[in-house]
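To: structure desk
From: M.T.
Subject: fold request, one chain
Message: Could you run this one when you get a chance? Sequence is below, nothing fancy, just the single chain.
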Amino acid sequence: MEETQERENIIERVAALDIGKAELVCCVRVPGRAGATRRVQEVKTYKTMTRALLIMVDRLTELGVTRVVMEATSDYWKPPFYLLEAAGFETWLVNAKDVKHLPGRPKTDRLDAVWLCKVAERQMLRPSFVPPPPIRLLRDLTRYRWDQVAVRTAEKQRVEKLLEDAQIKLSAVVSDIFGMSGRDMLAALIAGQRDPKVLARFARGRMRAKLTVLEDAFTGRFSEHHGFLLAKMLARIDTISADLVEIDARIDAEMAAFADAAACLDEIPGVGHVAACVIVAEIGVDMSRFPTSGHLCSWARFSPGVKESAGRKKGAGATGHGNRYLARVLGEAAVSAGKTDTFLGERYRRIARRRGKKKAIVAVGRSILVIIWHLLGEPGARFHDLGKHFYDDRRDTNTQKRNHIRQLEALGYTVTLQPAA
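Reply: Done. Structure tokens follow.
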């Protein structure tokens, strides 16, 4: 027999919320009268306005509720969650997939709340990770920054499409058309300059070696209509860039409380300051939420799924879709680490050669998560690189010798080994 961590006792006083945009249904289940075996439940509907939610909080306090469970429904769960959390309740946010209603039974908001409450009182649910308020503030900033970067990138792509429409092939010659030289050229186009030779002379530095090619690139049909649109697009890009400077300053101010954690993460190859801020914002700094590094990797969906039926394993399943902001920054960190002469860089290159770059990104991303868990979960821990020769130093010399002999024999050579003096 094997002991498990699950507890079979029923929570005496529990509540569950089925949340919508305008109203929610609250089901409360508490013990019956003394000596009674049946439990008592109360189901009420409340508006999601703050006053109505405060009335609900008072009612739950009166009934002595200890735990409140709710589904993660869009962003509608946030107002009741934050109010209940501030009132001192043990508030759980659960995945809607874990509490799907049984098929064949009627489905209403009231029945959903009752079902959720019954499942919650028997402790058949797991709470989702909801970071504490300081991390939530930082997360709002980092996610908004990421969204603004995406908006600016989309606007830059519109500029390139507009130039293509005007037969201006600047992007085919210049790697960054939004650099100093490129912006001067675009400003001249907006101002009405159409002479390719004059436009090409705005090139600076090494770009001046491309004057002839630039003249050909500016030979097009750029009109006043294109100039109007280009001016609006560049103004939008500049506005977003200015906003990003202010957002970065605000992020740095919020990160002051987590400076030690950011410094530790910054030591990991591929993880810079911006990536460290995003990682702290998405997983926090308290690793007690994740008992092991494997739990963190599983939560982030950087662990392969397990598929087994009738005693037969059907191969590793897909990792699934996790936190997209964390996955994106880990993917970028893995690619950056793959360009370094470090253990992570060598790990990326070894896996990429055998199984492709996509699997290498996931594997190295998982390794970075394991490192992060140890750095944040163990006081005083510092990053130590194992080195790019980690695998070579631990490879069996006989295996290396056998592999090299096979490769030479495959090329048509007869190999005779003689030990060196």
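Reply (cont.): Residues 135-256 form one domain. Let me know if you need anything else for the meeting.
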